[in-house]
Design brief:
nine-stranded mixed beta sheet; Arc Repressor Mutant, subunit A; 2 domains; binds iron/sulfur cluster; TIM Barrel; alpha/beta; globular
Length: about 375
């Protein structure tokens, strides 16, 4: 069986003001013990997955490139020793401008990494500062150039819209700059003010100047219309790529395929069970050092939840939901179970039904959450 591997690096130099990901600053003293624990967990999974082939690997965070070239090399070496890796595997790493140099990039390249994803968010220095990013626009440009120089030809840039104080012109400049750097993939996310973040506190105090709803919508429309015209095809709600450069690892999530997550706060979907690792970094290290499984929660979603998950993950992609795929997986006819919901959503022009396929319409892509909620039990 082919499986994906996710490796979580929960460290950041500084927390961005909007971020609610499981990542922490000021933990440099834990980098080394964390890498050791991570390798131990990876080796353990190596035994469990001895019959599987790993065909996608994603090192995410946090900021994986905060680790040294040696540590990154150690992790990749351990992965190669522990698993059977497909010769054509996609091996991605997330990176932040300001934390990469040729030495690290070459260590990643020689460890087999072939895709790099930079969290750029915007090319406006003013906006970068106001959202708490650690880098400037020039550092982002430099990072992409260095990655090209190190031999990476599959590069993603993450961009954000709907940032406080951002105008449509700012966004357009950023999208144009990203394209001009010769990257192969662009992810464009709208800002969501998440509970527990500094932005949420600022919002409560009325100190967050978010763009008007209409401006936000204009930004969304610009991104989703402009990128395809420039050869970046939309293949998922927030993801655009040149042909053949879709992120294969992320496609696994949307196609309900299995993956194993290692590291603090990592999640796995394995043998139809969802597993969550311990969030706390020190506790994670402690558990692994003691030879215990660092799993905090495991659950097998009941059938109704699993079907809803399967549907809405598939609907995130432009390809949509394959009706025969659904039937094969659940041994159940989609229309028997969801016919009424589907016809209501189609009447509202949110989904379109074509022979063996159901997908979101352009409007449905915009209001994906309405569609997803409709399928929840
Ligand atoms: S760099 Fe990424 S993971 Fe780290 S705080 Fe910023 S958004 Fe969160």
């Amino acid at each position: 069986m082919k499986t994906g591997l996710y490796i979580h690096i929960p460290f950041c130099q500084q927390k961005c003001l909007y971020c609610d990901f499981p990542s922490y600053d000021n933990l440099a003293h834990l980098y080394q013990p964390y890498v050791t624990a991570l390798c131990q967990e990876i080796s353990g999974w190596g035994g469990v997955l001895s019959r599987d082939i790993i065909d996608t690997i994603y090192i995410g965070g946090g900021t994986p490139t905060l680790l040294s070239a040696d540590s990154l090399g150690t992790i990749l070496e351990c992965v190669h020793k522990s698993f059977a890796i497909d010769k054509t595997a996609e091996i991605s790493i997330e990176a932040n401008p300001g934390t990469v140099n040729q030495e690290k990039l070459l260590a990643l390249k020689s460890g087999g990494a072939n895709r790099i994803s930079f969290g750029v968010q915007t090319f406006s220095n003013e906006l970068l500062k106001s959202i708490g990013r650690i880098h400037t626009a020039n550092q982002a440009i430099e990072a992409v150039r260095e990655a090209h120089k190190a031999g990476f030809d599959n590069i993603n840039l993450d961009l954000m819209y709907g940032l406080p104080g951002q105008s449509c012109r700012d966004l357009e400049n950023s999208v144009r700059q990203a394209i001009g750097l010769g990257v192969t993939h662009i992810s464009a996310y709208g800002l969501k003010v998440e509970d527990g973040t500094p932005f949420a506190a600022m919002d409560r105090q009325g100190k967050l100047r978010l763009p008007e709803e209409q401006v936000d919508e204009e930004m969304y429309n610009f991104t989703t219309e402009f990128l395809p015209k420039q050869g970046f095809m939309r293949y998922e709600i927030s993801n655009f790529s040149k042909t053949g450069y879709e992120c294969r690892h992320n496609l696994k999530y949307w196609q309900y395929q299995s993956y194993v997550g290692v590291g603090a706060a990592a999640h796995s979907f394995f043998q139809e069970e969802r597993l969550s690792n311990i969030n706390d970094v020190s506790q994670y290290i402690y558990f692994v050092e003691k030879g215990k499984l660092p799993i905090e929660e495991r659950e097998k979603p009941d059938r109704d939840i699993a079907m809803a998950e399967y549907i809405f993950l598939a609907l995130r992609t432009v390809q949509g939901l394959s009706l025969s795929g659904f039937k094969n997986y659940f041994n159940c006819d989609f229309f028997q179970q969801y016919g009424k919901i589907a016809s209501e959503l189609a009447k509202k022009n949110l989904i379109v039904v074509k022979e063996n396929q159901i997908s979101l319409t352009i409007t449905g892509m915009k209001y994906g959450n309405v569609v997803f909620r409709a399928f929840l039990p």
